[in-house]
Design brief:
Elements lengths: L2 H15 L2 H39 L1 E4 L2 E4 L2 E4 L1 H7 L6 E4 L4 E5 L6 E6 L13
Antiparallel strand pairs: 1-2, 2-3, 4-5, 5-6
Helix pairs in contact: 1-2
The structure holds zinc ion.
Zinc ion binds next to helix 3.
């Protein structure tokens, strides 16, 4: 028998016995138990959401020279591995065929992507 069912049973017994004062006190206790049960359910739901978020954060993926956590990223691997901090990296194209992920905090650079460089026409270069 659940707690609420026990209270209902006790309340009925007291009501049948005709003790009005005790009956009212039991009603107050019943309301408090009901409110605490609702609060408990809300807290369990909040805890479930927080655990879910934590699990998402734990899924660390190394890709393109950076870390990704779920759909978030890219983050600096150096800062995360060393300090446990998520610092978002910035893309930098050297215009020579390499795109880097560069950390604004520790200046760590990793290669994100290489691409074929366009050939430079000699007559476009001025000496
Ligand atoms: Zn960094």
């Amino acid at each position: 028998m659940s707690l609420i069912e026990n209270i209902k049973s006790i309340t009925k017994t007291v009501s049948d016995a005709g003790n009005h004062e005790l009956y009212q006190k039991l009603e107050e206790v019943s309301k408090e138990i009901y409110e605490l049960s609702l609060e408990n359910m809300q807290l369990k739901e909040e805890l479930r959401i927080l655990k879910q978020k934590q699990d998402e954060n734990m899924e660390k993926v190394f890709k393109d020279g950076a870390y990704y956590f779920g759909n978030e990223g890219p983050y600096c691997t150096n800062c995360y591995d060393d300090l446990g901090k998520k610092i978002r990296v910035h893309e930098e194209d050297d215009n020579m065929g390499i795109i880097y992920n560069t950390c604004p905090k520790c200046k760590f650079r990793s290669i994100k992507q290489k691409y074929p460089c366009k050939p430079v026409l000699l007559d476009t270069i001025t000496f």
